[in-house]
Predict the structure.
Amino acid sequence: MYLFENYMEGGIALSADPRSIVNELEQAGFNRNEIGRALDWLDGLNRIQDLTIDPSTPSKAVRYYSLEECDQLGLEGRGFLLYLEQLSILDSKTREIVIDRLMALNRNELNLNRIKWVVLISLFSQPDKKSALSLLQDMILTDAFNVLH
């Protein structure tokens, strides 16, 4: 999240030299292991961008989760992803990107807030998802400030 907030501009490419990023993150108190994991996670996001979904897949197809995915995401996480699909914030491609990136995290790192961040970063990385990104940002900010509409 720190990298996303401080180094990413208009896509998923980091906007600074990796060595200077590592040095600054170490000065901010992150250890090399955490930094390496974060950079690997972003690299995985870069690689999965080329994911292609079979065009014959119906847009309202049901996603069946593996046992490992069920265990990792939990009922609340899977329900949230389904909710985002029903709101058309996620489509089948972005859903798969989100699931891939969530599976790359440690299970003890996952909670609903972390899932929201992964969805936000995943949408941010998709240039054609600006309206979905805006909807999710509004939803997250509304939750953060407990504002009723």
Summary: Residues 67-86 form the longest helix (20 residues).
